[in-house]
Design goal:
Length: 171
């Protein structure tokens, strides 16, 4: 097991929930984006999707991670992947955050019921009321192909996105 995989397992054990495993169908959901428009995962059928759960809009590590995605969005697009950022913030906070940072990808509000989608994906922390840093790459058939859950306070390594997206091309 890689160090990232070991860390993900440790987080899952600490939270007591299970994330969808690689090879399993991704749980479907519908949330509103920063404009209040409904976004449903299964409507992306035939397209790869990268779900990026993050704790809160406007926080330091989250901003750094999402700005790195923003600045390298072509990497995702070249892999035929749509990026969806998800946090427990309201659509209003998501919109202000996206406008301030220039994010052109959707930020989804897992606001109410609070953290329900993060809980479905095993990344909701009920003690703090936030989503953990979880990344799920889902292929065009709706199957989970990559899972990474980082412990609190540790940013994701962008190199892992590159490797996982390169792996999609081989599927």
């Amino acid at each position: 097991m890689t160090p990232a995989g070991a860390a993900a397992t440790a987080v899952q054990q600490a939270v007591g929930t299970a994330t969808p495993a690689v090879g399993e169908p991704a749980p479907d959901f519908e949330l509103v984006n920063q404009y209040g428009e409904p976004v449903r995962l299964y409507e992306f059928g035939g397209r790869n999707v990268v779900l990026v759960f993050f704790p809160f809009a406007f926080s330091g590590i989250c901003t750094g991670e999402l700005c790195e995605i923003r600045d390298n969005l072509a990497l995702f697009e070249d892999s035929g992947a749509t990026v969806l950022g998800i946090s427990v913030d309201s659509k209003f906070a998501q919109r202000a955050y996206a406008e301030k940072e220039g994010y052109s990808f959707d930020l989804l509000a897992d606001f109410w019921p609070h953290g329900a989608v993060a809980e479905q994906y095993g990344v909701f922390d009920p003690e703090s009321g936030m989503a953990r840093r979880g990344t799920f790459i889902i292929d065009a058939e709706g199957i989970v192909r990559f899972v990474l859950v980082n412990p609190r306070g540790r940013a994701r390594d962008f190199a892992e996105y590159r490797a996982a997206l390169a792996g999609l091309a081989g599927n």
